[in-house]
Design a protein that fits this description.
By secondary structure, the chain is α/β, with parallel strands linked by helices. The chain has 8 helices and 7 strands, in the order ααβαβαβαββααβαβ.
Length: 220
């Protein structure tokens, strides 16, 4: 009897032990499930990020620092893979020289790495940003977007000689900007110059496509 009682107590203890083990394993399994779900959410979030999808947003003025940051990021993406890149512009324009550097960098990425770059204007692509739009393999404007074309502005005050030199340089910049805008346009360069001279020329999405300053209306 004593032996049977001892065995029963032993079996009972083992049962309690295995029950506790099962509870612990169940708890661990639940914790691992939670970790897996969290990881899956993180992966989905990472995949959705602009960085992962090679979408670069430029919602700011065209300045030295912003253009340099854009050039570095786009160049890095180009070296990583030949997957398409999208540049989304919502900008009032800004520095012509820095903007031209970014424009040429995008062209270089297209040519050197054979990467398809889509430039998209959302809301507004004014002044230099309108020129940046032209750098894309495809140029898209949002249905409610506007682009602005106007003459380049002088930089600063100075002596008569300095102002004369600056005026010559501004005219060169102006001519270059008009050349870029006209390079794929459906209207003549002379018409672009006439419309932009001495006033702000605002162009809606439909007109952008009609004039050949964009390829289609849409959004990315």
């Amino acid at each position: 009897m004593t032996t049977n009682k001892a065995e029963a107590e032993k079996f009972k203890a083992e049962a309690e032990f295995y029950k506790a083990q099962a509870t612990m394993f169940g708890f661990q399994a639940e914790q691992e499930k939670i970790k897996l779900e969290r990881l899956q959410r993180d992966v989905a979030r990472e995949v959705a990020l602009n960085l992962t999808n090679r979408v670069y947003d430029f919602p700011m003025e065209v300045t030295e620092s912003y253009c340099e940051s854009a050039i570095q990021t786009l160049s890095m993406w180009a070296r990583m893979s030949s997957d398409p890149i999208t540049v989304r512009l919502t900008s009032p324009g800004g520095d012509i020289i820095r903007g031209l550097a970014l424009h040429d960098a995008i062209l270089g990425i297209r040519q050197r790495y054979s990467i398809y770059v889509t430039c998209v204007a959302l809301g507004m692509a004014a002044s230099m940003a309108a020129v940046l739009l032209q750098a894309g393999s495809k140029r898209i404007v949002g249905p409610n977007a506007y682009i602005l074309v106007h003459e380049a502005e002088a930089f600063s005050m100075g002596t008569v000689s300095q102002l004369e030199d600056e005026s010559k340089f501004i005219r060169k910049l102006n001519d270059r900007l008009y050349d870029i805008l006209a390079s794929r346009a459906k209207i003549k360069r002379s018409e672009i110059v006439t419309k932009a001279r001495r006033k702000d020329w605002w162009i809606d999405a439909q007109e952008c496509v009609e004039f050949g300053l964009a390829d289609e209306i849409g959004g990315v």
